[in-house]
Design goal:
single chain; alpha/beta; Ubiquitin-like (UB roll); Rossmann fold; nine-stranded mixed sheet; 5 helices; 12 strands; cell membrane; POTRA_FtsQ_type; FtsQ; cell division
Length: 234
């Protein structure tokens, strides 16, 4: 009795295995036929357009698109995830089908704000102080230094966004003693700002530049740490 039951079980499993294999065969055959039919009727992937990628290599994105299948077969969510993992620069990915045969890929990248130097590492950061990539050199970005400098980045962001003539000459910013900023200009002058109300001190410097003959390049140090005083050193 037991032997008979085992025999019948083996026969049943063997039959199920054959049925499954046959089903998979026909499913694959139908899928291939439908794929060929769609492609022959113009629903292939003839063009892939990529926009918004300034720092991400376009070829790295294009290599992820399987052009051998119909455009409707592309899993947009899976392709989005794959592209997202290509580069740390990528913030968002949006993909659209433009039927019958165009795939539109829009890349939204992180915006570089400054170079943050921490010990021997140099990182590109955004305006919130978040690291985008390490060891990536971009010209004309302000350099940020100093312990806990990223926690007090708002002041630097504010003075750079004002787009004054003086802010255009900022080369680097050093956070000193975990409490105040030194601003180094591109002529190597160092502006020592006070801990309290650095905005007023910076605004006053802009006022001096716009209304007087005060020349920053004449001085190596412009010390504003004492209220209502400016001490200069050649």
């Amino acid at each position: 009795m037991i032997i008979t039951a085992l025999f019948l079980t083996l026969v049943l499993y063997s039959s199920l295995d054959k049925i499954t294999n046959r089903f998979n065969y026909y499913f694959t055959w139908c899928n291939d036929r439908l794929s060929s039919l769609l492609i022959s009727n113009g629903f292939s992937i003839d063009k892939v357009t990529v926009t918004g990628n300034k720092f991400t290599n376009e070829q790295d994105i294009l290599s992820l698109v399987d052009r051998t299948q119909p455009i409707m077969y592309i899993s947009l969510s899976k392709l989005t995830d794959n592209i997202q993992s290509v580069s740390k620069w990528i913030k968002y990915v949006r993909i659209y089908r433009i039927l019958p045969s165009i795939l539109q890929i829009d890349i939204d990248e992180h915006t570089p704000f400054a170079l943050w130097k921490d010990d021997n590492r140099t990182s590109v950061i955004d305006s919130e102080g978040k690291v985008i990539v390490d060891d990536y050199q971009i010209d004309n970005l302000v350099i940020i230094k100093g312990q806990n400098s990223l926690s007090s980045l708002k002041f630097i962001k504010d003075i750079l966004e004002r787009k004054t003539q003086l802010s255009d000459h900022i080369s680097s910013c050093v956070y000193v003693g975990n409490r105040r900023w030194n601003i180094i200009l591109d002529d190597s002058s160092t502006v020592k700002l006070p801990e309290d109300n650095p905005y007023s001190a910076w605004d006053y410097l802009n006022h001096l530049q716009n209304t007087t003959d005060f020349t920053f390049s004449n001085w190596s140090i412009i010390d504003m740490r004492v209220a209502d005083k400016i001490l200069v050193k050649k």
